[in-house]
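Weekly structure sync, notes
Attendees: PL (lead), two postdocs, one rotation student
Agenda item 3: pending single-chain targets
PL asked that the sequence for the first pending target be pasted directly into the notes so everyone works from the same version. It is reproduced below exactly as submitted, 116 residues in total.
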Amino acid sequence: LGSVKSGTGSSVLWVHNASLSAAGTRMCVGYCGKRSFHHTVNLLVFAFPDQLTVSPESLVPGRDREVACTAHNVSPARPDVFSMSLLLGDQELEGMQTLDRDVMEGPQGDEDPLFQ
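Predicted structure, written out during the meeting:
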């Protein structure tokens, strides 16, 4: 996992070249005489997307199409840690939008809430 550097009153875990296998619950244990103290911590390892895929790559004028942006190899993929947006210039697109009018719809069936 890494190396531990201990000094007076502290101990530091250095994680070198963290991989996803380093993630998880770890426990810090300290001793003072016959007493022991412990505290657990959840170690998160972030893996940023190695690529983003947008499909379709081109649109045909006059035709309705769904545009999806997908991230690959992201960790953790929880919505409180990772999010994505589709932009048109510097404007964030939300719901169902066209260039000349906005029509807001909720998710349909099992639609991913990321693209609501």
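Discussion points:
- The CA atoms of residues 49 and 74 lie 5 Å apart.
- Residues 2-43 form one domain.
Action: rotation student to compare against the earlier draft before next sync.
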